[in-house]
């Protein structure tokens, strides 16, 4: 643990003396070696997560939010790899663990919920078999006790008549019911952290709210923290305690959910919030941010958002801002540099 | 389920009738059968009389119905060449072919699945690359060449194994088996490898491709995210999902192994039905050829039926109709 105290920019400094945060990600880099050089899909991402906290991670497709989640649970698909940085779970470094040790952390300490419930379950096994297998992998419960636990879990996630449903196959469940089963599987041995990667994107709008409710309630009951990855601001606003906004592989803003939604600091976040239509306002066109997110091969110099930023000034293309304090939030924008005369940091 | 089986059986009967029609028409393709039976001096009147007696003047449909009726009872007439009932001749030869086919199919399946899984899991390993290269040779070399090469190496140069025949056989109530004597087992090795090699490479490549496909699916990722051990993921979750296509191909291949054992049986002088068929062709032994055709078609149809039933055992999605799926 000596390296922890040496890390100069460690956000853990803030928690000195107290308990380490449940999850701490420091300067995470995710990269893909390709024929045309190294693609850096996630750059310098740092954040931490307290026990029981729900952190929403938002961003467009390709912003690196899913890769960040996948890197935390150690399931990046080769050739993708962690190119730098550290991931700590309860103060213990897990990004460099050997495969066999990491396997024991997966499912037991970190659970994961995937996007598509229709393809997340193995079609050839009953949901009971899949639950019991997972429970027995991480505990030494007997077959009968594991089955009892599985029944309990199915009831917990709101599946009616679990005694009958437990011996059915995934294709006999609807999408929403399957996502409930997936949540039961992710939570079956009480992990302290759940990574939910777009858990509602593939579902009907009417089902989405139910699933989020189940996820939120269960994580609260089990005391699990959630890293909720989504591009649905509505889901984030209702569920999360804090929000992290990602753009082109970087964290551009992180802060309490009310602040980020009501009072976004980074121009990108403002654009993102401004593009959500408001019921009751007559609008000819939806607001949008001009241009599109750059490709990983063509990330602009300085602040990666500067070509699309309405408030760009001469410093932006030259230097890249780190996360700077902006009210109760932090934003990676020169507007919040106290030394910047144009900056809102003065205001 | 029952409706499905009935439907498949009906389809199979139609297939068998079509094949019977083809094999029946063989008799008419090779000239007037009366000419083949009688001498030069037979008068036209005698010919007509014989024709009438043999029922050759009956309408086509009646003749065909008679053929099918006899075939169902296993009666395919008398072999021209051997002058013995065709069904008896085939029944004598069938055990040799079935034993050879069974052993080579087992060899192809076991080795094929094992190497397929191995090469899929260690995609870039050196051993995998060597196996993949060798399999390319297995696919591209013709069967007779493989057989001759094996004979040259193991029978001629090393003299470990016999180059032809079945060795000693034991008669088990009409079924003559080579499984019970050491010379019979030794004699099986080379022909079984020759016959199974192509199927082996096919199964291996299929298993490999399917495994790679399945390993990319979400449910495998989710299984990893739940921390299940690799062995459970690879064999319990991934391999089982590759089985449906593998069963299909293996089933079809088993049919071809029986049907196309002709070449291997010729190379190794294996006393099975394939060799019998080749000889029948050389002597234009029509009854034997017709019976062989029907028999092979029967094997294919039965194997296909079994394959369809196996799907049900493997894939629960087929066991329930959409109407019984409950959900909302």
Number of strands of chain A: 12
Task: Give me the Rg of chain B, rounded.
Answer: 25 Å
* Count of the domains of chain B: 2
Global shape of chain B: globular
**Name given to the CATH homologous superfamily of the largest domain in chain B:** MetI-like
Average residue pLDDT of chain B: 84
Low-pLDDT sequence parts of chain A: 1-16
Helix content of chain B: over 70%
How is the biggest beta sheet of chain A arranged?
8 strands, mixed
The outline of chain A comes out as: globular
Strand order of the largest sheet of chain B: 1-2
Q: What does it look like?
A:
The complex is a heterodimer of chains A (347) and B (328). By secondary structure, chain A is of the alpha/beta class. Chain A is built from twelve helices and twelve strands. Chain A has helices at 2-6, 65-72, 99-105, 117-120, 127-138, 143-156, 162-165, 175-186, 205-222, 233-239, 257-262, 267-274; strands spanning 23-34, 37-49, 54-58, 81-89, 92-93, 110-113, 193-197, 225-229, 242-247, 250-256, 324-326, 329-331. In chain A, the strands form two sheets. Chain A has an eight-stranded mixed beta sheet, with helices on both faces. In chain A, strands 2-1-4-5 form a four-stranded antiparallel beta sheet, with helices on one face. In chain A, a hairpin with a 2-residue loop joins strand 11 (324-326) and strand 12 (329-331). In chain A, helix 6 packs across helix 8 and helix 8 runs parallel beside helix 9. Chain B is mostly helical and 328 residues long. Chain B folds into two domains: 1-81 and 283-328, no CATH class; 92-279, MetI-like (MetI-like fold). Chain B is 74% helix and 2% strand. Chain B has 14 helices and two strands. Chain B has helices spanning 2-29, 33-37, 44-53, 60-72, 86-121, 126-140, 143-157, 182-215, 218-225, 230-259, 261-267, 273-282, 286-314, 316-319, and strands at residues 170-172, 175-177. Chain B has a two-stranded antiparallel ribbon. In chain B, a hairpin with a 2-residue loop joins strand 1 (170-172) and strand 2 (175-177). In chain B, helix 5 (86-121) packs across helix 8 (182-215) and helix 8 crosses helix 10. Mean pLDDT of chain B is 84; it is low at 322-328. The interface between A and B is medium-sized, with 34 and 27 residues.
């Amino acid at each position: 643990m000596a390296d922890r105290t040496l890390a100069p920019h460690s956000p853990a400094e803030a928690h000195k003396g107290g308990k380490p945060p449940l999850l701490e990600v420091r300067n995470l880099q995710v990269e893909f070696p390709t024929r045309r050089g190294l693609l850096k899909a996630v750059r310098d991402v740092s954040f931490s997560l307290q026990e029981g906290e729900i952190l929403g991670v938002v961003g467009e497709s390709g912003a690196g939010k899913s890769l960040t989640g996948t890197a935390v649970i150690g399931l990046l698909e080769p050739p993708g790899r962690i190119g730098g940085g550290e991931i700590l779970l309860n103060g213990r470094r897990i990004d460099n663990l050997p495969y066999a040790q990491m396997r024991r952390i997966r499912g037991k300490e970190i659970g994961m919920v995937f996007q598509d419930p229709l393809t997340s379950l193995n079609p050839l096994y009953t949901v009971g078999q899949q639950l019991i297998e997972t429970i027995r992998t991480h505990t030494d419960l007997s077959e009968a006790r594991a089955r009892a636990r599985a029944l309990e879990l199915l009831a917990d996630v709101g599946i009616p008549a679990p005694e009958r449903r437990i011996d059915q196959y995934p294709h006999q469940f609807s999408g929403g019911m399957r996502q409930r089963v997936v949540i039961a599987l992710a939570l079956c041995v009480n992990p302290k952290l759940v990574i939910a990667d777009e858990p509602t994107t593939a579902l009907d709008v009417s089902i989405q709210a139910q699933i989020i409710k189940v996820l939120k309630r269960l994580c609260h009951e089990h005391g699990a923290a959630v890293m909720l990855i989504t591009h649905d601001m509505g889901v984030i606003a209702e569920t999360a305690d804090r929000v992290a906004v990602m753009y082109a592989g970087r964290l551009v803003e992180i802060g309490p959910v009310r602040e980020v939604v009501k009072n976004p600091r980074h121009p990108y976040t403002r654009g993102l919030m401004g593009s959500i239509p408001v019921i009751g306002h007559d609008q000819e066109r939806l607001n949008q941010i001009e241009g599109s997110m750059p490709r990983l091969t063509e990330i602009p110099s300085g602040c990666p958002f500067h070509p699309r930023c309405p408030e760009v000034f001469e410093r932006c293309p030259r230097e890249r801002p780190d996360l700077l304090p902006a009210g109760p939030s932090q934003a990676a924008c020169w507007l919040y540099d106290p030394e910047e005369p144009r900056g809102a940091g003065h205001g | 389920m029952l409706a499905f089986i009935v439907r498949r059986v009906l389809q199979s009967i139609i297939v068998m009738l079509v094949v019977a029609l083809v094999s029946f028409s063989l008799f008419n393709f090779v000239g007037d059968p009366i000419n083949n039976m009688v001498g030069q001096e037979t008068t036209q009147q005698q010919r007509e009389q014989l024709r009438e007696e043999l029922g050759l003047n009956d309408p086509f449909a009646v003749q065909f119905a008679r053929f099918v009726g006899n075939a169902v009872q296993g009666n395919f007439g008398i072999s021209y060449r051997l002058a013995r009932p065709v069904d008896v001749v085939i029944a004598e030869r069938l055990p040799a072919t079935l034993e050879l086919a069974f052993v080579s199919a087992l060899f192809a399946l076991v080795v094929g699945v094992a190497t397929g899984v191995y090469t899929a899991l260690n995609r870039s390993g050196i051993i995998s690359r060597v196996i993949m290269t060798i399999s390319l040779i297995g696919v591209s070399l013709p069967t007779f060449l493989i057989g001759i090469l094996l004979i040259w190496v193991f029978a001629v140069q090393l003299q470990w194994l016999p180059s032809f025949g079945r060795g000693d056989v034991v008669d088990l109530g009409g079924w003559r088996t080579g499984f019970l004597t050491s010379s019979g087992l030794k004699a099986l090795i080379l022909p079984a490898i020759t016959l199974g090699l192509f199927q082996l490479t096919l199964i291996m490549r299929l298993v490999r491709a399917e495994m790679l496909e399945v390993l990319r699916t979400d449910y495998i990722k989710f299984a990893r995210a739940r921390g299940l051990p690799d062995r459970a993921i690879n064999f319990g979750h991934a391999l089982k999902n590759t089985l449906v296509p593998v069963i299909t191909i293996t089933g079809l291949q088993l049919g071809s192994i029986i049907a196309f054992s002709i070449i291997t049986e010729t190379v190794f002088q294996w006393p099975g039905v394939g060799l019998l068929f080749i000889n029948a062709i050389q002597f234009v032994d029509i009854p034997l050829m017709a019976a062989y055709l029907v028999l092979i078609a029967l094997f294919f149809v039965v194997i296909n039926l079994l394959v369809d039933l196996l799907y049900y055992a493997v894939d629960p999605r087929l066991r329930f109709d959409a109407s019984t799926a409950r959900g909302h």
